[in-house]
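P.,

For your records, the input lines for the assembly:
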Amino acid sequence: NAGVTQTPKFQVLKTGQSMTLQCAQDMNHEYMSWYRQDPGMGLRLIHYSVGAGITDQGEVPNGYNVSRSTTEDFPLRLLSAAPSQTSVYFCASSYRDRGPSEAFFGQGTRLTVV
Amino acid sequence: DAKTTQPNSMESNEEEPVHLPCNHSTISGTDYIHWYRQLPSQGPEYVIHGLTSNVNNRMASLAIAEDRKSSTLILHRATLRDAAVYYCILKSGNTGKLIFGQGTTLQVKP
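C-alpha cells returned:
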C-alpha cells in the first residue's frame, strides 16, 4: 500500500512564486490535513478537510489555499511564496475526523523560499 | 483545544524500560489521548491511543490516570531505533484535529 504520498520531496522557490504541494492517499480516508514544521519545532496545522468539498482553517492558514475535489487528493497551494514559508510540510490522513482514528503521515516536502 | 505538557527531553539506556509522562489537566470528556513519534527526517507515526483505560499494543503501553489528567507512554525495552521525538496529543472527539505540542526528545544510549 502506498499510504500517503507527497510530491515533490524537495522544492526551491523564489519569493513571489506560486506552487502546489501534492498529497494523495489510497486508503479511502475522509479526513486529510496539512502541517508545517519549522526547524526544532512541533507541527502546526495549516488546513484540514473532513471530506470531499469541505475544508477549514487550522492554526496557521495565512498564505495557503486548499481544495478537496476528490477523497484521494488534498493539494496545498502557496499563493505568493515568502521566506517565512520555508519549512517542511507534512500531509496526513485518517479514516474519520473523530477521536479514535489514527493518522497516517506522508514523508514530507522540504520547501525553501529564497 | 486542550493542551498537553511534556518534558523537553529524556534519556534512557538501551534495553531498559522508558516512561514518558504527559500532563493534560484541561482534558475534556470527549478527548482521546494520542501518542505519535517522529524519527529524524521522517513524518510522524502513530504509536498508541486511549480514552479511559490502559492500552497495550505491539509498540508500547499507555497508562492513563484515573482522573485522566495525566498519562504515561511506556516503552518496555528501549532500542536505539526508539530515539525520536514523542508527542502526546489530545484529539477532540468532536473536531478530530491533531494539535501538536513540542514533544519529548528521547535519547537512547547504548
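Two observations worth noting. Chain A has a mean pLDDT of 94. The CA atoms of residues 1 and 90 of chain A lie 19 Å apart.

Regards
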